[in-house]
Write a structure and sequence with these properties.
The complex is a heterodimer of chains A (658) and B (78).
Chain A: E1 3-9, H1 15-23, E2 40-43, E3 49-53, H2 65-76, E4 81-87, H3 91-104, E5 108-113, H4 115-120, E6 123-125, H5 127-134, E7 137-140, H6 149-154, H7 170-182, H8 190-197, H9 201-210, H10 214-225, H11 229-248, E8 249-251, H12 259-267, H13 273-319, H14 323-341, H15 344-360, H16 362-376, H17 384-392, H18 394-400, H19 407-416, H20 426-436, H21 441-467, E9 477-479, H22 488-507, H23 509-522, E10 523-524, E11 527-528, H24 536-548, H25 556-564, H26 571-579, H27 584-591, H28 597-609, H29 614-624, H30 627-654
Parallel strand pairs in A: 1-3, 1-4, 4-5, 5-7
Antiparallel strand pairs in A: 2-3, 6-8, 10-11
Helix pairs in contact in A: 3-11, 7-8, 7-10, 8-9, 13-14, 13-15, 13-21, 14-23, 14-26, 15-22, 17-18, 18-29, 19-21, 20-27, 20-28, 22-23, 23-26, 24-25, 25-26, 28-30, 29-30
Chain B: E1 2-3, E2 13-17, H1 23-31, E3 39-45, E4 52-56, E5 61-65, H2 67-70, E6 74-76
Antiparallel strand pairs in B: 1-6, 2-3, 2-6, 3-4, 4-5
The chains are: A alpha/beta (658), B alpha+beta (78).
Organism (chain B): Exiguobacterium aestuarii
Domain Ferrous iron transporter FeoA-like (chain B): 2-77
InterPro entries (chain B): Fe-transptr_FeoA-like, FeoA_core_dom, Transcriptional_repressor_C
């Protein structure tokens, strides 16, 4: 059996949690509206078919790019059944989507999630009544813990059912019939006519293109009922949902002040909110670097540069490998890949905290705290969520920009995202900060993140000015979900999900890059095993070194590592490790004579800003859909990086820093 | 009729006019349960004229909207 089941529901109701439960996938979950931005397909347990996880929607009428995916899916793609996940604590709102799905007449089951949240708010849900009223199966589940999910899975059915019919009143019903006749559809497609009257953009575009005469039907209806058709339909749906709620929910003792209220009173406090946010960010970096990441990284490095290197050398000697192979493995692969692998612990810790913030519900509050500031540069508070995710990796950050409804704001958010210092840049900071700023590592690294944010905001301001010729509107509305304590398993899964890409990169890109760089460094115009200064790498790096002199790091080594950094930013460290043919801890020592603290900082700033990595360029291309804009988004950073590093280095020298 | 922006904190009022705000904002508010005739209250105001946190009293649904938008939303103070 290979049935396709679509998972549909309001944002942040636990669709992805359920998806992970039912398919054994590790898809990304969070506690903010808009975590899922594209459809994901997973194999259902027991091989009964496929489950398709769709972005959350409140209505089949899409307002943003990720929501349009759902409407297009339902209209154009084949599927055999739907699971509608409903948040029991927000029944009335959720039911308005459920009604639209019921009207479609496709096989449908309801997973009633967050019954526990509803109970804690003193609401008791009468399941049997709900089942009878909706005429479909309703399964109580707790997607986060998995309770009830197996039962839902074993009861998936794709039997045909009659479309649910809600009477919208005589005038509207007549208009529905006329539209169906004009577009040549049968009564089972009644829902399409309703969606048309309700103003669903996708349906409107689809139908009016082929049957323009239906516009007149809508106009006539609006004259007859004396108001907009969509307003009438929405109200009718709401009344229906309200009726259902009154019938199935029994209100018991209602708590007045909830935990969420108490936390919100502090973290969205008018004055304290902002310092708390920056405190949270600082704590995140402090724990990542000083407390957990650095000690484990040192341990790993000791292992790599000690036993593993000497073991490899011993083994290669034993099998009689040629000096070429020895150099390739020890100076190329171990130095290059190892130089990056030692940072895996830091990156895991960073992703863990980002996942924690996402899953707790704090992200939605950050949107409030930051909105005023983001507005100053023409963005909105929601743009800050993709930016924070960009701290982990720019690729999902840029994709998360889809939740920003306004197209102009979405584009600007994408353009400035590469300035968000992703975890791949961490190894570079870690090496330099450890060598030159050993006492203030967290502070130096935080300052680079802040520099990135600051420049991103300035860039946003400029782009907004350039793009917003006539369109100055901005849409800001953010749902504030109740806080919840993130679950261990969920946290681990989303941390692993994000961090494994980094490990995989070490095995592919960085491995390949390391071998290539080592070859360039090992060979030169005069043959193999040349002194490093006469290698091809030195020649290539030397080409741009002259340009870099005013920035304080005009060496061929810096030039060469910057070129290779386009593959993936951590390759900068690999390259340096290969050039200086040392492990990471010794790399610090090798850098000391070449950089000064000032030029090291200037170099770090340059690396932060100069170009997005290859993977980021690819995702920008996909998200902006224009080669010209992609070129621009990828290259303007180079100019910014040059100017910023120049200013840092030259002004720093004026003030007597070395 | 007064405006949502000027309502005192934690005072329950009735939403009465959503016609002057952006069409998409209105739709989104309505789909979140903030329709004309429902009871809402302002829970917090962010600093520097930042967003308002408002609650749909009946649903305990909380959202944040901008103060500039709240200025175009009419309410009835009972």
């Amino acid at each position: 059996m290979n049935q396709r089941i679509a998972l549909i529901g309001n944002p942040n109701t636990g669709k992805t949690s359920l998806f992970n439960r039912l398919t054994g996938s590790f898809a990304h979950v969070g506690n903010w509206a808009g975590v899922t931005i594209e459809q994901k397909i997973g194999q259902l347990h027991g091989k009964v078919g496929q489950l398709i996880d769709l972005p959350g929607v409140y209505d089949l009428d899409p307002l943003s790019a990720d929501e349009a995916i759902v409407s297009r899916f339902l209209l154009h793609e084949p599927f055999d059944g739907m699971i509608n996940i409903v948040d029991a604590s927000q029944l009335e709102r959720n039911l308005q989507l459920t009604l639209q799905l019921l009207e479609m007449g496709r096989p449908l089951q309801i997973g009633l999630n967050m019954v526990d949240v509803a109970e804690s708010r003193g609401m008791h849900v009468h399941l049997d009544k709900l089942k009878t009223l909706l005429q479909v199966d309703v399964f109580p589940i707790t997607a986060r813990t998995g309770d009830g999910c197996d039962f839902l899975l074993s009861s998936i059915q794709i039997e045909k059912r009659q479309p649910f019919e809600l009477n919208y009143g005589p005038e509207t019903e007549e208009a529905i019939t006329r539209i169906l006749r004009l577009i040549g559809r049968s009564r089972t497609d009644r829902w399409i006519a309703i969606q048309y009257l309700a103003g669903n953009r996708i349906v409107v575009d689809h139908l009016e293109a082929s049957s323009p005469e239906i516009v007149a039907v809508r106009k006539e209806l609006e004259t007859a009922i004396g108001r907009f058709a969509h307003a009438h339909i929405t109200e009718r749906r709401r009344d229906w949902a309200k009726q259902i709620r009154y019938q199935v929910i029994e209100n018991q003792n209602v708590q007045d002040v909830t935990m969420t209220d108490r936390i919100d009173a502090v973290v969205t406090h008018p004055i304290l909110g902002l310092p708390i946010f920056f405190g949270v960010l600082y704590a995140l970096f402090h724990v990542t670097f000083n407390w957990i990441g650095a000690p484990i990284s040192d341990l790993l490095d000791g292992l790599l540069s000690g036993p593993i290197t000497s073991g490899t050398v011993w083994m290669l000697d034993a099998v009689g490998a040629s000096p070429f192979i020895q150099a390739l493995l020890v100076d190329g692969v171990i130095a290059g890949v190892g130089g990056v692998l030692v940072f895996v612990p830091q990156i895991f810790v960073l992703f863990f905290f980002i996942s924690f913030l996402e899953d707790s519900g704090y992200m939605a509050r950050v949107a409030i705290v930051m909105d005023r500031f983001m507005q100053l540069v023409g963005l909105n508070g929601k743009s800050f969520i993709p930016m924070i995710i960009g701290f982990g990796c720019n690729v999902p950050g840029i994709m998360a920009a889809r939740t920003v409804e306004e197209e102009r704001e979405r584009l600007v958010t994408i353009f400035i995202s590469p300035f968000m210092s992703c975890s791949a840049r961490l190894p570079i900071y870690a090496v330099f900060a450890a060598s030159f700023f050993s006492t203030h590592q967290a502070l130096i690294v935080l300052s680079l993140y802040m520099l990135g944010i600051f420049l991103a905001l300035i860039a946003a301001k400029i782009f907004t000015k350039a793009l917003a010729a006539e369109d100055q509107t901005s849409l800001f509305i953010v749902e504030q979900p109740p806080y919840r304590v993130p679950q261990g398993l969920t946290l681990w899964r989303s941390t692993w999900q994000k961090a494994k890409g980094f490990v995989r990169k070490a095995g592919t890109f960085i491995f390949g890059g390391s071998v290539f760089i080592w070859l360039l460094a090992y060979s030169g115009p005069s043959g193999f095993d040349v002194p490093m200064n006469e290698s091809f790498l030195a020649m290539i790096g030397g080409l741009i070194a002259t340009v870099l002199i005013p920035l304080g790091f005009g060496t061929w080594q810096a030039g060469a590592s910057l070129i290779t950094g386009f593959l993936a930013k951590e390759v900068v460290v690999s390259t340096m490790a290969i050039i200086y043919a040392v492990g990471e801890s010794d790399l610090s020592d090798s850098l000391l004579p070449i950089f000064t603290p000032l030029s090291a900082y200037s170099f770090m700033a340059f690396v932060l800003l100069y170009v997005p990595c290859l993977a980021t360029v690819a995702v920008i291309r996909r998200e902006v859909g224009s080669a010209k804009l992609t070129w621009f988004a990828s290259l303007y950073g180079l100019g910014v990086a040059y100017v910023v590093s120049l200013v840092i280095y030259q002004v720093g020298r004026l003030f007597g820093f070395a | 009729m007064s405006l949502l922006r000027h309502v005192a904190l934690n005072q329950t009022v009735i939403l009465s006019d959503l016609t002057k705000i952006d069409d998409r904002l209105r739709r989104r508010m309505i789909s979140l349960g903030f329709y004309e005739g429902c009871s809402v209250r302002v829970k917090r105001r962010a600093i520097f004229s930042g967003p308002l946190t408002i609650e749909q009293v009946d649903h305990q649904q909380i959202i944040a909207i901008r103060r500039s938008d709240a200025e175009k939303i009419g309410v009835i103070v009972p």
